[in-house]
Amino acid sequence: MDEAQGGGRRKLSAQELACLKLLVMGRTNKEMARDLGLSPATVASYLQSVYQKLGSQNRTHAIALAIRAGIIDPDAPAA
């Protein structure tokens, strides 16, 4: 899936979705950057965009909203 949409909100890009999936797995920004071959600043920028698009206030809220919107399946095996 290239993009995901949460309940009428703007679509997440593929990179935003990748960061969100790693966020759900408990990864830090530094770990996400390493896993995705990005800088930590770029990861932070993607996550800020995710928070804005989902209407979340923080990491935990973003995860909860993503699960409720069906963007993330909490029962899916980790990749």
Automatic annotation (TrEMBL):
Q: Name one GO biological process term.
A: regulation of DNA-templated transcription
Organism for this UniProt entry = Aureimonas endophytica
- Which key words are in the record? DNA-binding, Transcription, Transcription regulation
Note the Pfam families from the entry. Answer: GerE
Question: Which GO molecular function, any one, fits this protein according to its record?
Answer: DNA binding
SUPFAM superfamilies according to UniProt: C-terminal effector domain of the bipartite response regulators
Residues of the HTH luxR-type domain: 5-70
* Gene3D superfamilies documented for this protein: Winged helix-like DNA-binding domain superfamily/Winged helix DNA-binding domain
Know the name of this protein? HTH luxR-type domain-containing protein
The protein's matches in InterPro entries, at most eight in alphabetical order, are given as:
Sig_transdc_resp-reg_C-effctor (IPR016032), Tscrpt_reg_LuxR_C (IPR000792), WH-like_DNA-bd_sf (IPR036388)
